Amino acid sequence: MVDLETFRQETRGWLEQNCPESMRTRMVLGEDIAGGRKRTSTNPDAYVWLQRMAEKGWTAPTWPKAYGGGGLRKDEFLVLLDELQIIKARPPLVGMGISMIGPTLLEYGTDAQKLRHLPAIVRGDLAWCQGYSEPGAGSDLASLQTRAEDQGDYYLVNGSKIWTSGALHADWIFCLVRTDTQAPKHEGISFLLFSMDSPGV
Ligand SMILES: Cc1cc2nc3c(=O)[nH]c(=O)nc-3n(C[C@H](O)[C@H](O)[C@H](O)COP(=O)(O)OP(=O)(O)OC[C@H]3O[C@@H](n4cnc5c(N)ncnc54)[C@H](O)[C@@H]3O)c2cc1C
């Protein structure tokens, strides 16, 4: 195990060599990468930065290495954040993959789901969006009406989602759907992941 001061020196040296100059300023509108290719960054350096950080697993520094993450301990993660801040480095990857569905899968996903989705999220391969709100279900999310029927090897989803930030650029959605219409309002809701390129979306 590398001691913390050594880790800091190695991290500082690596960042010095690998963080492009133009990534050492405040984020510029349109230059961020939120995953996927439907919306591209206007700064090519952003892709260099993303690729280098993703190779080290540092787009998700504390996620296990088995899922593409950096496998850092909390104290190492704090050192990394500190060193990134010192050079004013931008986050290499933003969006709902890295911030929302990734951590959720880490906590609740099956091994198959983790292996399928987490490494792709770390690399920024896909953009994700969040499908919770509906025209009649905002703060009172349990009013959601979108239904998903189990058809054996697929779910048939019917309903409307609204306020879905980034939907037009998203490749996948994590979506709340009603799978048991007989259950009390706050139950019978499932968390479905599917491609935004699915027929009918
Ligand atoms: C910029 C933006 C991005 C968003 N992105 C997403 C997204 O990506 N995915 C997604 O699923 N959703 C998204 N949302 C939706 C958001 O998460 C909320 O669910 C939604 O804005 C709240 O629902 P509503 O607008 O229908 O308001 P309502 O739920 O109808 O609320 C209207 C007003 O009534 C008040 N109110 C509601 N219930 C009560 C109560 N019981 N007691 C007292 N007051 C109450 C609320 O505070 C509010 O002032 C986004 C919203 C915004 C503004």
Automatic annotation (TrEMBL):
Keywords: Oxidoreductase. Residues 129-201 form the Acyl-CoA oxidase/dehydrogenase middle domain. GO terms for cellular component: plasma membrane. Residues 42-125 form the Acyl-CoA dehydrogenase/oxidase N-terminal domain. InterPro entries: Acyl-CoA_Oxase/DH_mid-dom, Acyl-CoA_Oxase/DH_mid-dom_sf, AcylCoA_DH/ox_N, AcylCoA_DH/ox_N_sf, AcylCoA_DH/oxidase_NM_dom_sf, Mycobact_Acyl-CoA_DH. The keyword Transmembrane does not apply. It holds the Pfam family Acyl-CoA_dh_M. One of its GO terms (molecular function) is flavin adenine dinucleotide binding. This is Acyl-CoA dehydrogenase/oxidase N-terminal domain-containing protein. It comes from marine metagenome.
